[in-house]
Prior knowledge:
Blueprint: H1 4-16, H2 19-25, H3 49-58, H4 63-86, E1 91-96, H5 97-101, E2 111-123, H6 141-159, E3 164-166, E4 173-176, E5 184-193, H7 195-200, E6 206-212, E7 217-221, H8 223-236, H9 240-253, H10 257-263, H11 268-276, H12 291-305, H13 307-311, H14 326-350, H15 360-365
Parallel strand pairs: 2-5
Antiparallel strand pairs: 1-2, 3-4, 4-5, 5-6, 6-7
Helix pairs in contact: 1-3, 3-9, 9-11, 12-14
Amino acid sequence: MINFDNRLKSLKDRRQGSRERVLLDNHLSSYDPRDLRTKERYEELAESASIKYAIGAMAAVDARSTQISIEEGERVANTLVSMLSTFGISAEMEIQGSVALDVHIEGHSDVDMLILKSDIVLVQIPRVDGFKVESYDKRSMEDIIKELRQQSEIKLTSRYYQAEVDCSGNKSIALSGGSLRRKVDIVPACWFHSHDYQRTGVKHHKGVEIYHKGEHRLIRNQPFLHIKRVNDKDLVYSGNLKKIVRLMKNLIADMPEYKKRVAKKLSSYDITAIGYDMNDQLHCPSYLSIGLVEKLRSHLTLLVDSTEQRDRILVPDGTRKVFDTPDKVEALQILHSEVTDLAVSIYKSIDPYSFVEYNSNQLLQRQVFI
């Protein structure tokens, strides 16, 4: 059985930084007995460690920490856009990923910033009547975005010489350290104007094509449609979709390394899609949030047991299946086991003298007011 007292410590450190890190950030000795970190509401509950962990793991990271991540990402991206313009490359920036969606689980989260060529786009053909795009660059889009990537590497390395600028990634340039308060991933790409965007002109129908450095090719993605669909469904279910996503991501983050290596085959997109697929199971008032653990356990059981159920699940933007490799099924099984252990631990804390191994109704009916 999982030791949730230890898991609570990991959760605290992830959300607010370790006590030692906070002391260092405040220029204090690591031998200082104080813990300067704020007590969060889940920590003050008069509940078992497993219940406090579940509530804390579902909660959003502190809003100010999230805002700092966004500000830092935008600062770096805007600086790069300005530097590229001096070289004659027109570009613009957009935020994507877990921070933009507020399903990140770390106080000091990495932030993904798209750097997009702004004066030339890819257009899905045949073009919708009346939709016009002019371009005077005769190179392939792969070559155009390759140049964007190469110049971004040069500019960032020279500008952030005190930071670590890692250009080895195929899809992104990773910056950390130096003056940066957060790790920032710069993702060179171009716009893709789908038929839907040509008809509607709304941003969430705009796609992007991300440059893959190693294979010199473009990979299509729809980050804004993903964000819109997840936000819309989360609103319908009073924030419970994002709670479920954060819970799964925290459980994976706290797994022993040998399990985590397998479980991380499920990407953030995949995990979000699993929660997104729960639909009406996400109905739950805030004071019955513990019931979401049981609802997630039940949903994962269905997916583990049924190939047919797994095969029908798509990521929220509809571009691919979630379980498209055997590795992801193994990852699902490990995640299911962890959620089951959490559910059983909560049940035992609610009814410690029961001879019944597990009673789902106890979680579904358990009230916790925060």
